[in-house]
Amino acid sequence: MTDTATATPAASVHEDGSLERLTIDTIRTLSMDAVQKANSGHPGTPMALAPVGYTLWSQFLRTDPGKPDWPNRDRFVLSVGHASMLLYSLLHLAGVEEIDRDGKKTGKPAISLQDIENFRQLGSKTPGHPEYRHTTGVETTTGPLGAGCGNSVGMAIAERWLAARYNQDGFPVFDHDVYVLCGDGDMMEGVSAEAASLAGHLKLSNLCWIYDSNHISIEGGTDLAFDEDVGARFEAYGWHVLHVDDANDTKAVAAAIQSFRDTDDRPTMIVVHSVIGWGSPKAGSEKAHGEPLGEDNIRATKKAYGWPEDKSFYVPEGVAAHFHDAIADRGVALREEWEAMFGRYKAAHPALAAEIAAMLANELPEGWDSEIPTFEADAKGIASRDAGGKVLNAIVKKVPYLVGGSADLAPSTKTDIKGAPSFEPGNYGAPNLHFGVREHGMGAVVNGMTLSHLRAYGSTFLVFLDYMRPPVRLAAIMELPSIFVFTHDSIGVGEDGPTHQPIEHLATMRAIPGLDMIRPGDANETAEAWRAAMTDGDRPTALVLSRQALPTLDRSKYASASGVAKGAYVLASADDPEVILIATGSEVSLAVEAYEKLVANGVKARVVSMPSWYRFELQDHAYKESVLPAAVTARVAIEMAGEIGWDRYVGFKGRTITMSTFGASAPIAKLQDKFGFTVDNVVKIARESMEAK
């Protein structure tokens, strides 16, 4: 049902001289001044939502400005990332203290007034859109609209999972809420719809989206392209929907948030109706949304607020103390109570407490990899997706906070935890998540779970990376150890045809800075790939796995798969090689067969397995030279994917056996013949490379 949160009209918020009014107008004026000085940014939404941000933070948000990484704090996500000055103003006035990557205080404020004056400048702590790790108090990197909404669902899922696993009678270790400020742009993006649908299904009553319905977008009024009843849509998703008719009505905003706090069977959306750039002569215009107001308009706006017209970055006396104390008086006590409770919890439940400590420190339990299987040599072999499933199930036994699932493809991606239940209302402690056919939403949710200290993974077919590249990219920007499992990794998919056969996808992932993409060549390389993904605590990993069976190489004859850790390694080699065959994934065994034929015919060859370009580039020059000697210019790269990038490793005289077209629908053997992925063709191209001048 839809409700309207009502209270006494709050026009007085702009007429009295209260600290509430002064604080709200300080948020507004800091925002407009920062955007004006930068000559870049969006002043309107921070101005319009200042009363909402003030009310949420001062009356409800459970956080401690002096310990901004308190594990049980409420999360605040600014999905409308273009309104970053709202968040920066809140962080500044709240007196949030800066911490470094290790959680240690630096002795500086998270956001100083000088930082606000340096809005959008090189090296500042106030970039154009909020960036996680860059600015203390920013819970996730936002900017691409809808991304923060998706992250918030992951955060809410994580809280429910953590509570189900760790809370004991008398010990509510995890019971925080997740708040989101979102706008019309978020509501238009598909990722928010995917995430909201999942949240409604899961009845995540710890999740509250506050939707700023201001009817303005960059091009003009939203009626140009968007006139649906968003509240009705969210009711259909199973959300509790409330309306606040005036964003300036702080009492109505508070009543709506309290209604969320009282709702325990579904997520809540509060539709707040605002006028963008409230109080500005340009209020409600595209200018108020997407560019500075201009000096004359700022002076007029400040006059309307009863503000000193000639003062910039002005914080009236008492405002910062009022806002900080409103938050800290509640948050410090809650945090201290929590820490005292956790001390008792450690005595009563030491094993669980140790598990929590390791998880929060982004560490793995001792012996976490002790049950990872070793696969015996087998000419028939096993698909790397199947090997990956076996390895995943072995790791989960030792790392219970490794949690995830697939976009409706677990039987195919092999990422289900065997014999374990599904994460559903009433069973939030289960490890198997079902994201539904929502790849973009899944990626955003996985990042949100990872931001909440879980080691989260999501899986789908590699070709559907197209639907979820944005969260993969954002995971890399945030340096999150999210794990993305992509199977059906090549034209080896066969009869499914070109719509399901990825071609350009490996190149697009290799182009993402900070993403470790690993394409293992057999079952033992797959085990090492999972080991690498789990130990990469400061970057995301994409595991790229095959549908078809891959021969399990005889490691007594060929080099150990532990070489995966360095990204590329010499799998087999004659002394002083004349030609180097470089391959990834399913093509490694093809390279080995060609190598054996070349050697049998007197050619001194080498096979290099290169599952991760990213890891190989981290190695020193000496190691790289030992794998790919510069003197050996005859090189062949073999990969069932696009050619882009391989010139880095094969050079001018080298050759590639790659894909320059889309695939076709046919049995895999026919496709291998058609596109040249055969032993005879590899041998032929290797000889041509040796003859190149």
Describe this protein with a few key phrases.
Rossmann fold, six-stranded parallel β-sheet, disordered N terminus, elongated, alpha/beta, 693 residues
Report on this structure.
- There is one protein chain.
- The chain has 693 residues and is α/β, with parallel strands linked by helices.
- It has 3 domains: 2-335, 3-Layer(aba) Sandwich (Rossmann fold); 378-551, Rossmann fold (3-Layer(aba) Sandwich); 565-691, Rossmann fold (3-Layer(aba) Sandwich).
- It is built from 25 helices and 23 strands.
- The strands form 6 sheets. Strands 1-9-10-6-5-2 form a 6-stranded parallel beta sheet, with helices on both faces.
- Helix 19 (523-535) links the parallel strand 16 and strand 17.
- The termini are far apart.
Task: Offer a concise description of the structure.
This protein is α/β, with parallel strands linked by helices and 693 residues long. The chain contains 25 helices and 23 strands. The termini are far apart.
CATH topology grouping of the largest domain: Rossmann fold
Strand order of the largest sheet: 1-9-10-6-5-2
Low-confidence stretches: 1-14
CATH architecture grouping of the largest domain: 3-Layer(aba) Sandwich
Q: Portion of residues in helices?
A: 40-55%
Instruction: Describe the main β-sheet briefly.
Output: 6 strands, parallel
Mean pLDDT: 94
By CATH, the superfamily of the largest domain comes out as: Thiamin diphosphate (ThDP)-binding fold, Pyr/PP domains
CATH top level of the largest domain?
Alpha Beta
Specify the overall morphology: elongated
Q: Give the amount of beta strand, in percent.
A: 15-25%
- The radius of gyration over CA amounts to 28 Å
Number of helices: 25
Look at the helices and sheets and give the structural class. alpha/beta
Please provide the count of β strands.
23
Number of domains: 3
**What is the rounded distance between the termini?**
76 Å
